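For the sake of clarity, the format in which proteins appear in this thesis is described at this point. The record quoted next illustrates the convention:

___
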Amino acid sequence: QLRIRDWQMYYPTEQQKLKLEQQTGHPVWCGFLEPFLNNMALMERLYQLNPNNKVIITLRDPVARAYSQWKWEVFLGGQQALQDPYFESFDQYIERAIDLFPSVNTKTFCCFPLLSTGIYYKSVEQWVNRFGKENVMFLDTAEYFRNRQPTLEKIQNFLGLPVVEIPEYAKVANENPIKLPK
């Protein structure tokens, strides 16, 4: 069972929220940004707290997501991953994952099961059924990286926030420094 203390660190306290609202004169909204699309306990808890929550689900091409996870596995696993034939190539990584799926989760340094994290349709269906189509928005991460501002404007409109231009960052956040073959 998911406990509030397991995820409350992602949110400000009511006192912090009120203080910020007083300082800015605007309501404060809090996002939860973790790869928990498959976490049905979290979905239920959020629904219990507010059945009208706005949910934004960011999806990624499953093959691109799997390749990215392989790169992170190699990066986070360091020497241990480099010495493990399972991580030697992307092809071997995927073949092993498919061979074991769905009975056994693959070895991971990232803490996310490769295939069940990348197979979205059942989880997406659950979120839409629980919160309603009107409260769920889908975003393609590739679209965001191609054309950032229009994507951010869609989010702002969906949340009922004033549309503002959000400045570009100088560096890509969370970019894996490892350069591996495609």
About this structure: The first strand starts at residue 55 and ends at 59. The chain has a mean pLDDT of 83.
